Amino acid sequence: MSQACVSPVCVEVSRGSYQKLTGGLSRTYNIPAVRLTIVSHSVTVSRMRVWVNGDALELEAGATVLRLLERAGIDPVRVAVERNRDIVPRQSYANECLAEGDRLEIVTFVGGG
User: Fold this and answer.
1) What does the domain layout of the chain look like in residue ranges?
2) pTM of the model
3) Which CATH architecture has domain 47-108?
4) CB-based burial, 39-68: b 16+ in 10 Å, e otherwise
5) Which of 1, 89, 92, 99 could join 46 via S-S bond, C-beta 3.0 to 4.6 A?
């Protein structure tokens, strides 16, 4: 499946200057002292299946390790993540894009005495 980062609707409000937005359908409305530009996109978001701790999970294509943790309500500071048998450095969570069929293990640190 393809990877995509999309935003269905962009709205820009500016005073005194106009920036042309490209892509999608662009409409401009003149309002006194304010120009409002609405750009709408028709978007289909692809899905992918990954395996987390042995269980299948569907995510939007292009999701990152950080997005997966946020969706699961997991604090990224308190876990280690392995992707396809390689440890993912914590500082890479936001940039590490997942792919169809990835196998992840999420390990929580437990303290005790």
Assistant:
1) 9-40, 47-108
2) 0.59
3) Roll (3.10)
4) beeeeeeeebebebeeeebebbbbbbbbbb
5) 1
